[in-house]
Amino acid sequence: MKKIIWILVIVIMTVIVSVIFWPRHNIVAGKIMAIDSANRIITIKSKSQIIDLKVTNNTKLFDKSDHPALFSDFNIGFEVVASLNNNHNSSAINTIKITSSPNIIIVTPENNSVVKNDFQIKGVARVFENVLQVQAIDKKTKQIIFNSPVMAEPLDIGLFGPFEVNINIPAQNDVSEIEVNAFQYSAKDGSIIDKTTINLDVVK
């Protein structure tokens, strides 16, 4: 009987120790806000938190189709989900997967931000012939108050490239809320594709 009790005690203690020292796995998801290629750190915004994710040689990277991906395949504005191994207060990534990778991404300003009459749109795009269209619409009147083609500047064909454009709304215009759209026209039929939208409040 004593032998059985000792065996049970040993089993229970083993389970307790395993629970205490076993690595805890957490899942985080969010949008990539910055990428530090030199240190292989991907910074994401997850709800209200900013999290730095360290990519190591043991990290497994995947694209939207669950195929193996490279660090260079990840870009600002992508939505990702990562599996973390939290051990001694340091977060190491076990896996990270791209869940959304739109061809046009507005990086700044963020959706629902407040801007002045004169502001700048910055983003990244992977578009046909590196040309996209940026458009601002007065949400109250539905009138287009800005509409211009913009050039993205990728390092090579088929890659994402940064773009930026200044939007100036004349002070006399009674505009308080705008919708900014960035999109490209289809080379096949001229229709609008890859449209991304942000909403902004305008203050004088």
Structure description:
The chain has 204 residues and is mostly beta strands. It has 2 domains: 23-100, Copper binding periplasmic protein CusF (OB fold (Dihydrolipoamide Acetyltransferase, E2P), Beta Barrel), CATH 2.40.50; 104-203, Immunoglobulin-like (Sandwich). It is built from 1 helix and 14 strands. Strands 3-2-1-5-6-4 form a 6-stranded mixed β-sheet, with no helix packed on it. A hairpin with a 5-residue loop joins strand 10 and strand 11 (144-151). The model is unreliable at 15-24 (pLDDT under 50).
Uncertain ranges: 15-24
Number of strands: 14
What about the largest sheet?
6 strands, mixed
Number of domains: 2
Summed up, the helix count is 1
CATH class value of the largest domain: Mainly Beta
Radius of gyration: 24 Å
Structural class: mainly beta
Average pLDDT taken over every residue: 87
Q: Distance between the terminal alpha carbons, to the nearest Å?
A: 84 Å
Beta-strand residue fraction: over 45%
The secondary-structure element order is HEEEEEEEEEEEEEE
CATH-defined fold name of the largest domain: Immunoglobulin-like
Strand order of the largest sheet: 3-2-1-5-6-4
What percent of the residues sit in helical stretches (DSSP H or I)? under 10%
CATH architecture of the largest domain: Sandwich
3D shape: elongated
Which key features would you list for this structure?
single chain; 204 residues; mainly beta; OB fold (Dihydrolipoamide Acetyltransferase, E2P); 2 domains; six-stranded mixed beta sheet; five-stranded mixed beta sheet
